[in-house]
Automatic annotation (TrEMBL):
Pfam families: HEAT. Keywords: Repeat. Transmembrane segments: none annotated. SUPFAM superfamilies: ARM repeat (SSF48371). The keyword Repeat applies. The keyword Repeat applies. It comes from the Bacteria. This is HEAT repeat protein. InterPro entries: ARM-like (IPR011989), ARM-type_fold (IPR016024), HEAT (IPR000357), HEAT_type_2 (IPR021133). It comes from Aquisphaera giovannonii.
Length: 325
């Protein structure tokens, strides 16, 4: 009697389908795997279906989601299948709002050492983003509730979703969330990024205030959000903060990194001036900011000239480490 394939063998065989050309046979093999009792098999098949955008499998994915919602602690530990299904349906731009709504509300507490843990946070986060894409009825209510979810991944996703909504109401909710505060810098960063996405013109002035925060995680979240935005107004906000007297080195390093993230010519010129003129510890921070553009040969040449003129061993060593072609 032939030995029954192990789960690992089945998963390995399924993953090889990623390399197959699109075909009706591939679709049917994935359909069968999506209907499998194993959440790991179904999750892997859903991942492939989403990556390939095989929309013919959308109905099978919806049916599988319903199946894995039944007795979920037994049938879908860690929500692996449900997470993969929601992400696949979203990538297909499928309007499965019933699935997304159920996922956005799902809590799945599983036993861990010393208690239980909610393993459905990534599921709720993925569902929130999917509902934002579909502009579901009641979306803002869902996002308000998600902004105060116990799990940081969900709060961060809600902030990201509000940035995508882009309305005045979304901006006000994000500003309120920042005022109330959040213990997770990741959430604050998404709130700041959301404000900048909602209002690129006024957003930098709103976020600028938090560059003066005495709470370093808040300052970092604001600065890095400005850097990611690549908005001209973000440069002005960061430069203004730089000009304030008596900045601790960690604050300067954060501002320099954010300026590097902007990738604006004016910001790059400023960082080169810092490398040329500021004390070595600060100049090293500017090199960190410039490292984001290390792939640019013309910029590398400019940095090399500045570092060579200074002849500081620390700067020469950092350049050799981070900017070697």
């Amino acid at each position: 009697m032939a030995k029954r394939p192990s789960l690992d063998d089945r998963l390995a065989e399924l993953r090889r389908l990623r390399d197959r050309d699109p075909s009706p046979e591939l679709t049917e093999e994935l359909r069968k795997a999506i209907g499998d009792r194993s959440n790991l098999i179904a999750a892997t098949a859903a991942d492939i279906a989403g990556e390939r955008t095989i929309t013919e499998l959308a109905n099978a994915l919806e049916a599988a989601f319903t199946r894995f919602m039944a007795d979920p602690l037994k049938n879908d530990k860690l929500c692996r299948a449900k997470i993969a299904i929601v992400k696949a349906l979203d990538r297909m731009e499928h309007g499965a709002e019933d699935v997304f709504l159920a996922a956005a509300k799902h809590i799945q507490r599983e036993p861990v050492w010393g208690g239980t843990e909610d393993t459905a946070a990534p599921l709720r986060a993925a569902a929130i983003l999917a509902l934002t894409r579909t502009n579901a009825i009641g979306l803002m209510t869902i996002l308000v509730e998600s902004l105060v979810d116990p799990e940081k991944d969900v709060r961060a996703a809600a902030a990201q979703a509000l940035g995508a909504v882009g309305s005045e109401a979304a901006t006000l909710l994000l500003r309120l969330k920042i005022r109330v505060g959040d213990g997770e810098p990741e959430v604050l960063s998404e709130c700041f990024s959301g404000i900048l996405a909602c209002d690129p013109a006024a957003g930098p002035d709103i976020v600028r205030e938090y560059l003066a925060s005495g709470h370093m995680p808040t300052l970092e979240a604001a600065a890095l959000a400005l850097g990611r935005s690549r908005l001209p107004g973000a440069y002005e906000a960061l430069r203004e903060r730089w000009q304030q007297p008596i900045l601790p080195l960690p604050v300067k390093e954060t501002l320099l990194l954010a300026l590097g993230m902007l990738r604006l010519p004016v910001a790059t010129d400023f960082l080169l001036d810092v490398v040329a003129d500021e004390p070595v510890p600060v100049a090293l921070g500017a090199l960190t900011g410039l490292h984001i553009q290390a792939h640019d040969p013309r910029l590398r040449s400019r940095i090399e000239e500045v570092v060579a003129r200074r002849k500081a061993p620390e700067l020469l060593a950092r350049f050799a480490r981070d900017f070697s072609a």
